[in-house]
Amino acid sequence: MWRAWLTVLGLTILALVALIEPDGSLRLRIDASSEVLIDEPELDEARKRRISNELIAMVSVPDAWTGADVRAIASLATRLQRLPGVIKAETPFTTRIPIIDGNQIDVATLVDRLNQQPEKSREWIDLTFNEYLMRGHMANLEAQAIVLRVTVREKREGQVEPEQEARTMISEFLDGQSRYTGIMSGAHLVEEAIGEQILRDLGLVLMLSAIIIPLVLFASFSGYLAILLPILSISAALLWTFAAMAVLNIPITLVTAVVPPLVIALTLAYSMHALLSLIHI
């Protein structure tokens, strides 16, 4: 019997070593991207075709846009455009818009028009927001929010994440200007949100299991040992499973997130079955 306990103890120690980094962090990864759901040949082909990602920021003001607001957003777009890895940064204020002026069609950006005729800033801003190509696409119908679209190249090995730099610059701009409010979206942001939700759901499952399972065991068995052994079995099974995933470099994904609840259910069912068999003997 003591050999079995020593084996369990040794496996548990190895699992802890495999799972925990020297700095105390976990080696287990979380991958919330949809790439895990795609077959490897199709994934390689999709990666070859995909050369860029888009980061979308919606910036709004409490009342109406002014010439100072237009210049501030245009300046932000210019600084974003200069970041390494950024292909382009688009806003309604830096996009060339055709406007009919008498018998001529004037094609220019709103910033250029404001610089040329600052006394007509209100008129130019209203014309821009009423432009068919902008209204409902790059600006909302109430003319209080505009879209800042940043196209960045895919990160390459050894390079700084260009999208992260763009997100940081936009966040600093919004935090430093109390007049503006904004939200950001993009494929990577969605993946991060899904990853956080996976962690929250797993934490909730483990917490509820830690509460409900002892109650079920207490209602089923009278001895403390009969309650403690299944709990230890479940804990060891979860630890070994997570350690094996870390060693094999298998991340927690939308698919593998069901593994911990499955391990808990199977281990609990087998433990109760084994205990009932021993009681009947």
Summarize the structure.
This protein is of the alpha+beta class.
List the helices and strands and how they pair.
Layout: H1 2-19, H2 40-49, E1 52-60, H3 67-81, E2 86-90, E3 97-101, E4 104-108, H4 110-116, H5 121-130, E5 145-153, H6 162-176, E6 181-186, H7 187-220, H8 224-247, H9 259-280
Antiparallel strand pairs: 1-5, 1-6, 2-5, 3-4
Helix pairs in contact: 1-8, 7-8, 7-9, 8-9
- Average pLDDT confidence is 80
Order of strands in the sheet with the most strands? 2-5-1-6
How would you sum up the major sheet? 4 strands, antiparallel
Number of helices: 9
Oligomer: single chain
**Portion of residues in helices?**
55-70%
Please trace the helix and strand order, writing H or E for each element: HHEHEEEHHEHEHHH
